[in-house]
């Protein structure tokens, strides 16, 4: 009996001892050998974290500029504490190296968190699996495919315009555009990618829509402890974890029916035409699901996980961009009027060869330079993804364009990084950088797009569509053309029809969860109420 007790005691001492050694190593020993330690950066006590300063949109813009002045374009900050050095860089040479090199992956904690919600899709895959998935979905995002779905965006925008007309006719003057645009982009996404109409603009009752909505709203509420320690959700599921599981059950059940229907449809169309090729997202995923080659085959579950990942990535992001766009137009009435005037002009499609309706509607939207400038300026000034993280899977030397002086005075021309270190790519910070965009970088000025400084043009600027908003490299956003076309379709439908302004005394801020969303200062929740007035002389495209 005594010996059993002694053994138990010994086990406890050993476990506690191991834990103690682990903590001492984490807090004191390991940081001593971290090459980032010597890099310039903000200081603080052992448990001081700078995370708030780098992710809160109300603070980050100013803080980034202060640190850049103090430490240069590449520096380190404290993640969870002084023991957790993170690299932040505004140097495109370093950013390009990190985003283009296979050494750097999304951190495991990010991938695990996303996979509890979305399953195993393109967001959580890395290496050859990721390359395989990107290859399957690629054809859904070519210019030709986006042209083919542009009429869907225009039709959905018409539905939203009609619905807002009804609301105004009932006497309502202020509309939460954030909520309505989220409903509308869900509808557009459902039809463009799944050939499925959620009818969310009409009413929010559809089962699959509600399941996605609930899941994404809850993801924003998830506490940091459960993100860092994901097995807590299995051991002791809280309200959020239970609700995510329930939503995923509905998505799988309803999604399976949708897939079965689309599969039958695809097979019968294939039988009638040897050359039949389905280029919409669900069609491409199903073709892979039906492949005879096991190395190219996606299982039913993997297919549903991909769909969840795309909904997550593509629906609310575009809604938020449109929301912020209406906000900027509401607060810059001169720009709103100019855009309306451009949209009232008869359009001259770019492409002389446009032969079908899809091409014409896309080319019409694309032939409006001020519309293009307004969309891009919004995407620059309000990127829904505030920043992204990468982790080094091997030690590496990151090239930089300007030498950096270490704390001991040594000048370095490469940043040494060890396995497991976290790198923060400040998407918003790069979009706001005065050295790239000039001194008025924080102003909404669409005219800058007609004469961009050379620092914002390729080859100096590597981001997709001349923005960091969609990132670049192997994990960059495949949906950037989709978003730009959808934003143009909505703006060209609602701007000629309605005038937008900010309600008296309302002040709007940005809040960061998974995405950057608007809120009204002093009021709870995510929202952007705007006063909408009908313009009776409607100028069609
Ligand atoms: C304003 C709209 C959007 C923004 C700002 C945006 C931004 C981004 C960014 C920054 C990434 C890279 C994330 C990282 O490297 O950590 C990304 C990835 C992704 N985006 Fe978008 N996105 C938008 C719209 C869309 C749309 C419309 C779709 C699909 C229809 C889409 C699908 C994806 C997917 C699947 C990925 C993952 C790519 C990968 O890991 O290989 N996004 N997006």
Automatic annotation (TrEMBL):
<keyword id="KW-0408">Iron</keyword>
<comment type="pathway">
    <text>Secondary metabolite biosynthesis; terpenoid biosynthesis.</text>
</comment>
<keyword id="KW-0349">Heme</keyword>
<dbReference type="Pfam" id="PF00067">
    <property type="entry name" value="p450"/>
</dbReference>
<dbReference type="InterPro" id="IPR002401">
    <property type="entry name" value="Cyt_P450_E_grp-I"/>
</dbReference>
<feature type="binding site" description="axial binding residue">
    <location>
        <position position="477"/>
    </location>
    <ligand>
        <name>heme</name>
    </ligand>
</feature>
<dbReference type="GO" id="GO:0004497">
    <property type="term" value="F:monooxygenase activity"/>
</dbReference>
<keyword id="KW-0479">Metal-binding</keyword>
<dbReference type="GO" id="GO:0020037">
    <property type="term" value="F:heme binding"/>
</dbReference>
<comment type="similarity">
    <text>Belongs to the cytochrome P450 family.</text>
</comment>
<dbReference type="GO" id="GO:0016705">
    <property type="term" value="F:oxidoreductase activity, acting on paired donors, with incorporation or reduction of molecular oxygen"/>
</dbReference>
<keyword id="KW-0560">Oxidoreductase</keyword>
<dbReference type="GO" id="GO:0016020">
    <property type="term" value="C:membrane"/>
</dbReference>
<dbReference type="InterPro" id="IPR036396">
    <property type="entry name" value="Cyt_P450_sf"/>
</dbReference>
<protein>
    <recommendedName>
        <fullName>Cytochrome P450</fullName>
    </recommendedName>
</protein>
<keyword id="KW-0812">Transmembrane</keyword>
<keyword id="KW-1133">Transmembrane helix</keyword>
<dbReference type="GO" id="GO:0005506">
    <property type="term" value="F:iron ion binding"/>
</dbReference>
<dbReference type="InterPro" id="IPR050121">
    <property type="entry name" value="Cytochrome_P450_monoxygenase"/>
</dbReference>
<keyword id="KW-0472">Membrane</keyword>
<keyword id="KW-0503">Monooxygenase</keyword>
<dbReference type="InterPro" id="IPR001128">
    <property type="entry name" value="Cyt_P450"/>
</dbReference>
């Amino acid at each position: 009996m005594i010996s059993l007790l002694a053994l138990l005691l010994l086990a406890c001492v050993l476990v506690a001892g191991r834990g103690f050694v682990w903590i001492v190593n984490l807090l004191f020993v390991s940081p001593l050998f971290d090459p980032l330690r010597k890099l310039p950066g903000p200081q603080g006590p052992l448990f001081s974290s700078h995370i708030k300063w780098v992710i809160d949109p109300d603070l980050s813009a100013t803080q980034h500029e202060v640190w850049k002045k103090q430490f240069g374009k590449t520096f380190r900050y404290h993640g969870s504490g002084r023991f957790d050095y993170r690299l932040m860089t505004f140097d495109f040479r370093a950013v390009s190296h990190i985003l283009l090199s296979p050494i750097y992956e999304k951190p495991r904690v990010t991938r695990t968190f996303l996979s509890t919600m979305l399953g195993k899709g393109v967001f959580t895959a890395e290496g050859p699996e990721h390359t395989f998935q990107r290859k399957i979905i690629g054809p859904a995002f070519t210019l030709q495919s986006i042209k083919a779905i542009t009429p869907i965006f225009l039709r959905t925008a018409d539905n939203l315009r009609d619905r807002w007309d009804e609301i105004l006719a009932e006497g309502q003057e202020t509309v939460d555009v954030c909520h309505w645009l989220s409903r509308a982009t869900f509808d557009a996404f459902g039809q463009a990618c799944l050939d499925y109409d959620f009818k969310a603009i009409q009413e929010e009752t559809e089962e699959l829509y509600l399941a996605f909505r609930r899941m994404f709203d809850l993801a924003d509420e998830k506490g940091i402890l459960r993100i860092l320690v994901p097995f807590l959700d299995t051991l002791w599921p809280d309200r959020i974890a239970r609700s995510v599981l329930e939503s995923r059950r509905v998505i799988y059940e309803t999604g399976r029916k949708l897939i079965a229907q689309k599969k039958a449809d695809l097979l019968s169309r294939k039988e009638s035409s040897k050359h039949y090729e389905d280029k919409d997202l669900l069609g491409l995923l199903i073709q892979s699901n039906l492949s005879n080659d096991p190395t190219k085959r996606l299982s039913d579950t993997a297919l549903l996980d991909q769909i969840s990942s795309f909904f997550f990535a593509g629906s609310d992001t575009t809604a938020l961009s449109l929301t912020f766009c209406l906000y900027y137009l509401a607060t810059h009435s001169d720009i709103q009027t100019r855009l309306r005037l451009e949209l009232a002009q008869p359009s001259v499609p770019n492409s002389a060869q446009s032969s079908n309706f899809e091409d014409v509607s896309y080319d019409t939207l694309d032939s409006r330079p001020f519309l293009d400038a307004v969309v891009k300026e919004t995407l620059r000034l309000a990127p829904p993804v505030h920043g992204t993280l990468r982790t080094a899977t091997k030690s590496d030397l990151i090239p930089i364009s300007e030498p950096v002086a270490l704390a001991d005075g040594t000048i370095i021309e490469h940043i040494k990084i060890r396995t497991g270190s976290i790198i923060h790519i400040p998407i918003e910070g790069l979009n706001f950088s005065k050295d790239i965009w000039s001194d008025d970088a924080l102003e909404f000025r669409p005219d800058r797009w007609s004469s961009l400084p050379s620092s914002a043009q390729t080859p100096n600027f590597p981001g997709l569509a001349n923005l960091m908003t969609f990132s670049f490299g192997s994990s960059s956003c495949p949906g950037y053309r989709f978003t730009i076309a959808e934003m143009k379709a909505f703006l060209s439908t609602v701007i000629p029809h309605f005038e937008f302004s900010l309600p008296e005394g309302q002040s709007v801020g940005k809040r960061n969860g998974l995405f950057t969303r608007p809120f009204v200062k002093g009021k709870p929740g995510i929202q952007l109420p705007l006063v909408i007035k009908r313009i009776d002389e409607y100028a069609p495209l």
